[in-house]
Amino acid sequence: MNQSDDRAQHPRRLWRHPEPKSSYDVVIVGGGGHGLAAAYYLARNHGITDVAVVERGWLAGGNIARNTAVIRSNYLWDESAAIYEHSLKLWETLAAELDYDLLFSQRGVMNLAHNVGEVREGQRRVNANRLNGIDAEWLRPEDILEVCPIVNLAPDVRYPVLGATFQPRGGIAKHDHVAWGYARAADALGVDLIEGAEVTAFELDGDRVSGVVTTRGRIASGRVAIVAAGHASIVAGMAGIRLPLQSHPLQALVSELLEPVHPCVVMSNAVHVYVSQAHKGELVLGAGIDSYNGYGQRGSFHIIEQQLAAAVELFPIFARAHVLRTWAGIVDVAPDASPIIGLTPIRGLYLNCGWGTGGFKATPASGWVLAHTVANDVPHELNRPYGLDRFTTGALIDEHGAAGVAH
Amino acid sequence: MLLVPCPWCGPRDETEFRYGGSAGVAYPADPDAVDDATWAEYLFMRDNPRGPFDERWCHIAGCRRWFVARRDTLTNEFLA
What we know:
The complex is a heterodimer. By secondary structure, chain A is an alpha/beta fold. Chain A has ten helices and 19 strands.
């Protein structure tokens, strides 16, 4: 790649950097993956191009830059299966649509079972997935070795591997490229991406939203969507909306660059680790959230120690790999580990939050259904079950069982 | 790792504790009389501040007692 090509691909040059106008049809608060996807689908699916995405930092600098890029749709409940499978189908054509290489690789996602309870739960989930038209297989230990020869199947380890669920269509993508691809495509359709603009207040006209006050000036808009991930409680609080979310640090790490050695994604709820190998060669590892509420984008070291101990027991071949870098993102976790997407008591104000530890894979569908919700002022069929009212009606979508660790 | 100030045992490693979330979430005084929205508030709605936060900890690997600490959720500094 010559120097001019390199400059053309630099993210600063992939979209315009306009001054904010005084009003827009729609303002999206939060320029991460989900906000950018929503802006793109507002323009592409609904013809609404007078849209601003306001971001307090730089575009795609939050959780879209901090996740472990795992994509799958093997969720237990029908509501979850529907939205995550819609997302996976969008992933399968997304690079072509955005004309941007997302390094989307359907190398398969394996969820290990380490005890009889997990075997039964995993087999139940395979069957539930199949009933929902989602590809799912149950792997016996000898089948696991055919997919991923480096998993340790020794019977004398503390948590022996007894089997696994496998979704062949699952995989990984290059997270930064996803955000940049959506940003470039949204910008090309006329969406203004406003960086360095922190929302400090909402303006209301009776029970309707009428605009936002930002550090780059006031922007009038009758339709505002809050897509602020770990900071959703803070932003929604400015509009007087109380959310059932708790923000936690979620840590991840990468090793040094290694030769290709790990062919798929392996996850384990019981020992709390998940591992894939990026195209460039780093092993990418994640674990569960830090227990305490936190906004510091860093976590406690014992979480890393435990996840590495688990990884080395599952993959003895990794024992001499070096940790290159660790970090944390701030994830907004709902009581049922499912997102909140829909209307609010304030007319024209919409929510898309609570994705917790599993938002990356949902980026396309999340933007898709939010755009529909904002454009029509009614939820899309896929996000109707995900309203804030479910915490009053009791119709929770309890996915803790299917996603006991972060993912 | 956090160094958590147990009021009875002194500062100890975070791994000795279980986190209990927000302090001051009171069970409804008359549970038979409250409506669904009040139950939702009690069960699910929580403060989630970026800054000082009153939270519960249990020293499960020590004195096994619950206590309330005040911590800044951005800096992790224990304030009281």
